Amino acid sequence: MTEFLSNIFVGIFGDNVVLATILIAMVPIIELRGAIPFATNTGFWGVNALSNWVAMGWSLLGSSLIVPIIAIVFVPVMNWLKKTKLFGKLASAIENRIKSKSEKIEGSEEKSKHFSKAWWKKVLAVFLFVAVPLPLTGVWTGTLVAVFIGLDYLTTCITVITGNVIAALLISLILQFFPALNDWLFYIFIAIVLLVVLYELVRYFVNKKKKTKEITTESQEESKEENLEK
User: Fold this and answer.
1) What angle do CA 60, 134, 169 make, to 5 degrees?
2) Cα-based distances in Å from 138 to 10, 30, 60, 192, 227
3) SS (H, E, C) 159-227
4) How many CA atoms lie within 13 A of 51 on its CB side?
5) The CA-based dihedral angle spanning residues 69, 141, 209, 199, taken in that order and rounded to the nearest 10 degrees
6) Maximum pairwise Cα distance, the chain
7) What's the half-sphere exposure (Cβ side, CA atoms, 13 Å) at 219?
């Protein structure tokens, strides 16, 4: 498995581990949580593998670069997608999912005054959310949650990137003190990502089927009422 993946990565990036690390760190869900063990894995890169702290630096750069972009483009892009026939339902499902996560952090989406108690509560919640190095708590989701709960652009970027730094340090420290995990952490993380994606897909289709069934039942009941009236 390692050799197979190594051949793929080498075929795409050659021995440019830095470029591969930056790009992998930009990918949703994987981000620096997967990019750090990816870059330090000697099974993939051999002698070209990066050291723990160098990998952290490049992974942090890649995952942080996209934060200001997401904060700007997400809302207008989602609004446009919701108007399209092809992606409308998917865009609405993604938006609802992000809203459900943001409601767990802060029920109100209204903007709070800077440095008020409510404002600090939102900032701390987003910071802790991103700082925990788990799948689906990275800069992508963290930025979207910050936007939905009403944090302004600059606050969103600073809060998410700061949380991202803490997550990077935690992962690097784990690899530093438990180097035996280095060759396995990337696979463990990918397995978790696949399970999460599978869960979300199953959940989406189950909910979709449930809604379809409810609509069908309502239509049947309406037809019965119309027949009885006749």
Assistant:
1) 40
2) 27, 8, 11, 14, 54
3) HHHHHHHHHHHHHHHHHHHCHHHHHHHHHHHHHHHHHHHHHHHHHHHHHHHHHHHHHHHHHHHHHHHHH
4) 2
5) 130
6) 82
7) 6
CA torsion 105→108→113→117, rounded to 10°? -50
Q: Which residue type, as a one-letter code, is found at position 207?
A: N
Pairwise CA distance, residues 45 & 9, whole Å: 9
Cα dist. 20→45, 132, 228 in Å? 11, 24, 67
CB-count exposure of residue 71 (10 Å: 0-12, 13-18, 19+): buried
Ramachandran sector of residue 136 (left: φ over 0; alpha: ψ -120 to 50; beta: rest)? left
Within 13 Å, how many C-alpha atoms sit on residue 100's CB side?
A: 6
Q: Tell me the C-alpha to C-alpha distance, in Å, between residue 114 and each of 3, 46, 47, 151, 152.
A: 52, 49, 49, 9, 9
- pLDDT tens over the chain, length 230 residues: 556 555 666 667 777 899 999 999 998 888 998 899 889 888 778 888 899 999 999 999 999 999 999 999 988 887 887 788 766 776 777 777 777 767 666 554 445 667 778 888 889 999 999 999 887 788 998 998 898 888 899 999 999 999 999 999 999 998 888 877 776 777 777 787 788 778 878 877 887 788 777 777 777 666 666 666 65
